[in-house]
Amino acid sequence: MYYYMPKIEIRNYYLKWNESYGIPQKEINELKKFLTNVIPFFDTRNERGKQ
């Protein structure tokens, strides 16, 4: 099985890979979808400043 370290950028974030790891190609789209869904939960610094 081959492992890849795709360039994934979502909003102003990007995934930085450890040189010794990657993911199977069939899981790349699943990872992108997961990151797209969870980033809003971590990107709250701007919301707190508005209150």
Would you give an account of this structure?
The chain has 2 helices and 4 strands. The longest helix has 15 residues, at 28-42. The chain has helices spanning 28-42, 45-50, and strands at residues 3-4, 9-10, 13-14, 23-24. The protein has one domain (3-50). It has 51 residues and is of the alpha+beta class. 0% of the residues are buried. The strands form 2 sheets. It has a two-stranded antiparallel ribbon. The mean pLDDT is 83. A hairpin with a 2-residue loop joins strand 2 (9-10) and strand 3.
Backbone shape: elongated
Rg, rounded, reads: 14 Å
Report the major sheet: 2 strands, antiparallel
| Number of helices, where a helix is a run of at least 4 consecutive DSSP H or I residues | 2
Q: Taking all residues together, what is the mean pLDDT?
A: 83
Separation of the first and last Cα atoms: 49 Å
Number of strands: 4
Range of strand content: 15-25%
Which ranges are low-confidence, i.e. pLDDT below 50, for 5 or more consecutive residues?
A: none
One letter per element, helices H and strands E, the order comes to EEEEHH
Sheet with most strands: strand arrangement: 1-4
Helix content: 40-55%
The count of domains is 1
**Structural class of the helices, strands and pairings?**
alpha+beta
Looking at this protein, list some descriptive labels:
two-stranded antiparallel sheet, 4 strands, elongated, 51 residues, 16% strand, 2 helices, single chain, alpha+beta
Quick summary:
The chain has 51 residues and is an alpha+beta fold.
Layout of helices and strands:
Elements: E1 3-4, E2 9-10, E3 13-14, E4 23-24, H1 28-42, H2 45-50
Antiparallel strand pairs: 1-4, 2-3
